[in-house]
Amino acid sequence: MSLIEGAFICDYQRTAIGRYNGSLASVRPDDLLAITIQALMTRNPSVDWSTVSDVLAGCANQAGEDNRCVARMAVLLSGLPISVSATTINRLCASGMDAVAFASASIKAQDGWMFLAGGVESMTRAPFVLGKSPTAFSREATMYDTTIGWRFINKKIAEQFGTLSMPETGEEVAKRFAISRERQDEFAFASQQKYAQSFKQGRFAEEITPVKIPSSKGGGKGGSIDFLIDEHPRQDTSLEKLQSLSPLFTHGTVTAGNASGVNDGAAMTLLANQAAIKQFSLNPIAQIVAVARSGVEPNIMGIGPRDACRALIKKTGLSIDEIDLFEINEAFASQVLACLSELGISDNDPRVNPNGGAIALGHPLGMSGTRLIGTLALELKLKSLTYGIATMCVGVGQGVAVLLKKV
Predict the structure, then answer these.
(1) Which of 6, 36, 53, 366 has the fewest CB atoms within 10 Å, i.e. is most exposed?
(2) Is the four-CA dihedral 91, 92, 98, 100 of positive or negative sign?
(3) Active site includes 309?
(4) Which of 37, 54, 47 is nearest to 103 (CA)?
(5) CA-to-CA distance for 221 and 360, rounded, in angstroms?
(6) 3-state secondary structure of 34
(7) 236 has which bridge partners?
(8) Distance (Å) of CA 95 to CA 121, 164, 181, 233, 245
């Protein structure tokens, strides 16, 4: 096999995605991440794991059991040699995407030859946090739920940029880009349908590694069960059901049905250069060609993929028509549709999220970016296509896009 210089995705594994307070509720995030590392170790027995250059993991919260560098804790729990280092990355929703992108950049810069890169989030186990009193002996104290969204807000940020909640940003995008409720519900229903079809075809079996859950958590007695199936998808839904849901805000269009979920999960990729691929007889799936990032107005953070994709296209000289597949994170149907329209892509373009997206699967924040990249790499291989873009919006107003090429 002839490979040009670069960084290559050689394997990818993830857990099934759990609902909020669902099957993964009893599993710590560091344990979840360790499971995906162990899966890659098992699947690649020829690798000398002491030679891994670094482990990078994205995590958006880091306020509870995922504090103190969840990546390093996962390395220690996984059985990797203690000499293997690790770092945790936070770009909120795109944390897992950046972990893969930063590992790729390190390989290209010849700062390492083989990396594990992924992400994790347990939104169920995200703690409440209590701020310190502003003055001595004060009885004032503010508690925040760290599951998602703003806390300990800087008044200057609030005054200059606003601090809309994530669903409110979805509404703002819908308003500014004229995305109707009808289009959002139709897109959400299509996401559920695509997932259901791919699930029936066994599409996810290759990428999911089991998580052992005490059977008492699953309704049994004693022993354990293997958690292997994404539990967020609503396979019994219909367009009529989605249309019947009340909006989250008065006169709004965003609902629980056309937005992503609050979820738990972990994912991990194995990246390597030519030398490591040859040394350990690895099988590259896709090359990471280029990465682009952008900043946008925080109140319309969902439009971030538009700017990131435009920057990526400009950087690589490709056109949107030359991209065979898109994995666009479905934070909200409104923002995906706005981005597609701005990029000249139709609502139902078959290149977009062919196996469904976060509206169906769910969105464990730090994990999702790695899932998008891993799923895209496998889809390019499965369909013998050439180019794919994985892209995400990011809270506080950013976008990230990664271009893959099938090997």
Answers:
(1) 6
(2) positive
(3) no
(4) 54
(5) 30
(6) helix
(7) none
(8) 10, 21, 30, 23, 31
C-alpha to C-alpha distance for 251 and 354, rounded to whole angstroms: 31
Maximum alpha-carbon separation in the chain: 69
Distance CA 132, CA 198 (A): 49
Strand, helix or coil at 87?
strand
List of E strands, 284-334: 286-295, 325-328
Contact (CB, 8 A) for 264 and 51: no
Catalytic residue among 10, 309, 339, 393: 393
Do residues 60 and 92 make contact, with C-beta atoms less than 8 angstroms apart? yes
- Strands 54-58 and 286-295 come out as unpaired
What was the pLDDT predicted at 87? 98
pLDDT at position 219 is: 52
Tell me which H or E stretch contains 393: strand 387-394
**DSSP code of residue 133:** P
Which of 10, 309, 339, 363 is the catalytic position?
A: 363
pLDDT mean by block of 10 residues, the chain; 407 residues: 76 98 97 98 98 98 96 98 98 98 97 98 96 85 92 95 96 98 98 97 97 73 87 93 96 97 98 97 98 98 98 97 98 98 98 98 98 98 98 98 98
The two tokens of residue 133 are 């009193």
Kindly report the backbone phi and psi dihedral angles of residue 19, in degrees, each rounded to the nearest multiple of 5, phi listed first.
-70, 160
SS3 123: coil
State whether residue 121 is helix, strand or coil: strand
Percentage of the chain with pLDDT > 70? 97
User: Is 339 assigned a catalytic role?
Assistant: no
Enumerate residues 6+ apart whose C-beta is below 8 A from 351: 323, 324, 325, 326, 345
SS3 state of residue 42: helix
Q: In angstroms, rounded to a whole number, what is the distance separating the alpha carbons of residues 118 and 38?
A: 13
Instruction: Indicate which residue of 93, 232, 309, 339 is catalytic.
Output: 93
User: What is the token pair recorded at 58?
Assistant: 């994205």
